[in-house]
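User: What would this chain look like folded?
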Amino acid sequence: MNTAAAQKKQTAFRLDGDLLERLRVKARRENRSLNNYVERVLMAVAYDEPNEITIAAMKEAMTTGSRNRR
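Assistant: Here's the prediction, encoded as structure tokens.
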């Protein structure tokens, strides 16, 4: 048995009609189902956190950028 499939839970959300249509269009462009597309987007938001190296690089870029604007 696929444990990943066993962990999935069905749920329902109320979404604005225009938002839903935009999501459908984006899903079609990537040849994904609407469900798969929305799940991928939510996983990216929920789990994509920068690591320490990325955070340091972001801070350096912000510092360098503010110095270059002076």
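Residues 52-68 form the longest helix (17 residues). If you want, I can go into more detail on any region.
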